Amino acid sequence: MTIDRKLLEILVCPVTKQPVSVLAAGKLETLNLAIEGGSVLNHGGDQVTGPLREALITKNGSTVYPVIDGIPVMLEGESIDTVQLGDW
């Protein structure tokens, strides 16, 4: 299931108010490899344990929000800070 395009047009990061877009497939794959390796924490400090099928990323590329069953999880504590992924 993919995120509704009309919803995507109005969504912004709840912290920075930056627009978000769908995370590209290559970046999603890289993120999932890091998750599989056990090295990814969400903003709440919990280890992300399962792969993401879809995600949103802020315009500046600093924050990823998971999308679960077509529903964006726009909670700061569930977001993933991309700085921990290095030069991805």
In short, what is this structure?
This protein is of the alpha+beta class and 88 residues long. Helix content is 20%, strand content 20%.
Rg from alpha-carbon coordinates: 12 Å
As a percent range, the share of helical residues equals: 10-25%
Number of helices: 2
* Ends distance: 26 Å
Task: Average the pLDDT over all residues and give the rounded result.
Answer: 95
Structural class: alpha+beta
Q: In percent terms, what proportion of residues is strand?
A: 15-25%
Overall morphology: globular
Number of strand elements: 5
Largest sheet: 5 strands, antiparallel
Give, in order, the helices and strands.
Answer: HEHEEEE
Low-pLDDT sequence parts: none
Structure description:
The protein is α+β, with helices and mostly antiparallel strands and 88 residues long. 20% of the residues lie in helices and 20% in strands. Strands 1, 2, 3, 4 and 5 form a 5-stranded antiparallel β-sheet that branches. β2 and β3 form a beta hairpin. The longest helix is centred in the middle third of the chain and has 12 residues. It is globular and about 35 Å long. The mean pLDDT is 95.
Q: What is the element layout, followed by pairings?
A:
Blueprint: H1 5-10, E1 20-22, H2 25-36, E2 54-58, E3 63-68, E4 71-72, E5 80-81
Antiparallel strand pairs: 1-2, 2-3, 3-4, 3-5
What distinguishing features does this structure have?
88 residues, alpha+beta, five-stranded antiparallel β-sheet, 2 helices, 5 strands
